[in-house]
C-alpha cells in the first residue's frame, strides 16, 4: 500500500528514490537494507543514508521538513552534549566541542532521510530520533 502512496505523492525525485528504497528494503538497521545498499553505487549509497543538509544545519532541517518533535530531541541532545563539554573542560582543560559538534551533525545527517520517510509514508512523527537506525 505504501508504494502506491509514494507514487501518488508529489515528491522531489531525490525523496521518491529514497522512499522507494526504504519501502523495498526496510529500515537501515534491517538485514535486507544492509544487503541492498551494498549493491548501489557509492554516491547513491551516500544520498540514501546521509543528508548533507542534515549535517550542516541539523535540527533546523528537521524543522523545515515538519519534524518538530525530532528537532526538539536534537536540541535536547545538543544541550546535553554542551553540558558534557563543560564538564570535561572544567575537569581536564580540554576543549572537545568540535568532536561533540561532529557527533551531533553526524546524528542529524544519518537519521533525517529515514525519519522523513517514517513521517510522510508511515505516519510516524514520534520523538525517537534513532528509530530504525543502527546505532553500533
Brief descriptors of the model:
DUF2628; transmembrane helix; mainly alpha; DUF2628 domain-containing protein; transmembrane; membrane; 73% helix; single chain
Characterize the structure shown:
The chain has one domain (2-122). It is mostly helical and 136 residues long. The protein is built from eight helices and no strands.
List strands and helices in order, with pairings.
Elements: H1 2-8, H2 13-25, H3 31-38, H4 42-49, H5 52-57, H6 59-64, H7 68-92, H8 97-122
Helix pairs in contact: 1-2, 2-3, 2-8, 7-8
Brief write-up:
The protein is mainly α. 73% of the residues lie in helices and 0% in strands. The chain crosses the membrane at residues 46-65, 71-92, 99-117.
Oligomer: single chain
Helix/strand-derived category reads mainly alpha
Total beta strand runs: 0
Q: Please give the domain count.
A: 1
How are helices and strands ordered from N to C? Answer: HHHHHHHH
- Please outline the major beta sheet: none
Enumerate the spans where pLDDT stays under 50 for 5 or more consecutive residues: none
Distance between the termini: 31 Å
Based on CA inertia axes, which overall geometry fits? elongated
Count of alpha/pi helices: 8
Q: Please bin the fraction of helical residues.
A: over 70%
Rg result: 16 Å
Question: Mean of the pLDDT scores?
Answer: 88
Protein name: DUF2628 domain-containing protein
InterPro entries: DUF2628
Transmembrane segments: 46-65, 71-92, 99-117
Keywords: Membrane, Transmembrane, Transmembrane helix
